């Protein structure tokens, strides 16, 4: 049960980080360092969740 909750939390945080990164890029049309950091960290968390 604890592992399942951790997996769900990682998925939720990863998706929110991806949405934040892509949303910032769409909002001002520029790709900034924190946008890339948000996208890559979200992708990394999703990879860890599905591992």
Q: How many helices does DSSP assign?
A: 2
Helix content: over 70%
Radius of gyration: 12 Å
Beta content? under 5%
Overall spatial form: elongated
Per DSSP E runs of 2 or more residues, the count of β-strands stands at 0
Stretches with pLDDT under 50, minimum 5 residues? none
Largest β-sheet summary: none
Through-space gap between termini: 17 Å
What class would the helix/strand composition place it in? mainly alpha
Mean pLDDT: 92
Series of secondary-structure elements, N-terminal to C-terminal: HH
Could you walk me through the main structural features you see in this protein, from its secondary elements to its overall organization?
The protein has 51 residues and is mostly helical. 86% of the residues lie in helices and 0% in strands. Helix 1 packs antiparallel against helix 2. The longest helix has 27 residues. The model has no long low-confidence stretch (mean pLDDT 92).
Tags for this model:
mainly alpha, 51 residues
Compact overview of the structure:
The chain is mostly helical. The protein is 86% helix and 0% strand.
Topology readout:
Blueprint: H1 2-28, H2 33-49
């Amino acid at each position: 049960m604890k592992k399942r909750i951790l997996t769900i939390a990682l998925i939720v945080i990863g998706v929110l980080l991806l949405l934040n990164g892509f949303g910032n890029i769409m909002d001002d049309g520029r790709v900034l360092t924190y946008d890339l950091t948000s996208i890559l960290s979200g992708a990394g968390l999703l990879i860890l969740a599905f591992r």
